[in-house]
Amino acid sequence: MSAIQNPTSFPNLVGIIFSIGVAAEAWVGTLSGGEPTDDWHHAEWRRFPAAEANQGVAVDAECFYAITNRAIGKYRKDTGERVAGWEDEKGGHLKHLNAGVVFEGKLYCAHSNFPVRPEQSSVEIWDTATLRHIDSHHFENPPGSLTWVDRRDGLWFACFAHYRKTSDPALSRVMSFDADWKPLQSWTFPAALIERFGGNSASGGSFGPGGNLFVTGHDARELYVLDVPESGDELIWRDTIAISAAGQAFAWDRSPGQEGVLYSIQRKTKEVIISRVNSGGFDSLFDGKTFTDWEQAGNWVIEDGAFYRKAKGGSLTYTKSLVPNNFELRFEWKVSKGCNSGVYYRPRQYEYQVLDNVNSPYGENPRQAAASLFFCMAPSKDATKPFGEWNTGRVLCKGTVIEHWLNGERVLSFDYTDPKWAKEIELLRIRGADLADRGGKLWLQDHGADVWFRKLRMREIPEEEIIVADPAFEPTPVPPAALEKENERVRKMLEAAGEKKRADEAK
């Protein structure tokens, strides 16, 4: 194994960090929360078993390369056949390989000694034709543990991570280098994204469709869309995309005709996942100016590009078409103080709850809180903004899987045929819903309080697109006092249903 003789050193990291201008700070402040600003969506195609699929994956025109701590497997893209492998010799210097990227016939992998302190980081290099280790580049006094590297416009980009286990995740940063690994610029992650990493950092990162920088965390099934700012030292968080892989490193297939093709891993099952990430495909349901294709009783008006329920009179219903069996709906909503409303998307009580969680009495029960499947499934957390501020909502339904998102966070994800949710599904049945029902109208609820909706758009999810319920999803527990009230309400519902049945039988 040969080594480059002049390692990169960081004598004055602060000196290469850009200062934040006033205009840039205002711009970042409005777009650093990951709310959807582009209509990205993810569709899984297929999976291949790969014994080394533990840390990341790289890809070129013919093969993909599954990466684990001290070994690499080379596999054909078309069949998944393993055609070569490399493993570090016993007592070798490799400790913790991470992400990889192929550039000009060479595989470059990020490497660190994590969790040992002080940090040591290097870029390890293989010839993709022979899978022979040919070079190393070592960083002297690196500003963290190297997790990924990527090449763009003649420059190298790299992420140096920090973890709560040994340090402060807020110290994680992305840096750019020239072709000879001379440091150029440095950026931090937005505080909200650092929080989303959950004590970890960016496990994978690469420039992809639209020129955006995409990163993944350690174990969330999410791909974060970032921009590198023209000025300022904080990356701009644009969007969050639900994906199949549970974090870890990934790679874009940069072969001709493969725009948006994503290679990622599922480390628990040792699989490489091939999928595509696209933007677009949504149909706008509201032009922001007229009630075209919407029906109401006159109590809704249009205010600043939004539907506004101004007075008592009933719900607002979309009439152009029924909701597809498999669909994704995106919208923005804002509530007045104490407001209770909702978005109904399937027949008989399928409701994405819209609520002022703090000031409405409904907020005491998570199964009635914002982004819940009302009176059925509670979200995993309260991700709402205060009343009077805009929230972003998403609903994804594919087969028997239902997902609700709130402000860029997937807060509900379950398969209603899973036996562990039988009690929750029974609540919905008691309320009058049948989860097998399809073909309902989309409508926005008038529940007696002022509420606003805008940017409503929907797409039909194709059959080949795979959406899998998040196995880690856990609804927020219902507090004892709220549960007692819920049980009493259920008792009255069942009693009323029994009386109606007896009355019908007596006719």
Largest sheet: 8 strands, antiparallel
Judging from the principal axes of the Cα atoms, what is the shape?
elongated
CATH architectural name of the largest domain: 6 Propeller
- Look at the helices and sheets and give the structural class: mainly beta
Write down the CATH topology of the largest domain.
Answer: Neuraminidase
N→C terminal distance: 89 Å
* Mean pLDDT value: 90
Number of domains: 2
- List the total number of helices: 4
Report what the structure shows.
- The chain folds into two domains: 18-278, 6 Propeller (Neuraminidase), CATH 2.120.10; 283-476, Jelly Rolls (Sandwich).
- The strands form seven sheets. Strands 22, 24, 25, 27, 30, 31, 32 and 34 form an eight-stranded antiparallel sheet that branches.
- The protein is 10% helix and 39% strand.
- It is mainly beta.
- Strand 31 and strand 32 form a beta hairpin.
Element layout with pairings:
Blueprint: E1 8-9, H1 22-31, E2 40-49, E3 56-59, E4 63-68, E5 71-76, E6 82-87, E7 96-103, E8 106-112, E9 121-127, E10 132-140, E11 145-152, E12 155-161, E13 173-177, E14 183-188, H2 191-196, E15 204-207, E16 213-216, E17 222-227, E18 236-242, E19 251-252, E20 261-266, E21 271-279, E22 283-284, E23 294-295, E24 300-303, E25 306-309, E26 316-318, E27 327-335, E28 340-346, E29 350-355, E30 391-398, E31 401-406, E32 409-415, H3 422-431, E33 443-444, E34 451-460, H4 480-506
Parallel strand pairs: 1-10
Antiparallel strand pairs: 2-21, 3-4, 4-5, 5-6, 7-8, 8-9, 9-10, 11-12, 12-13, 13-14, 15-16, 16-17, 17-18, 19-20, 20-21, 22-34, 23-26, 24-25, 25-34, 26-33, 27-30, 27-34, 28-29, 28-33, 30-31, 31-32
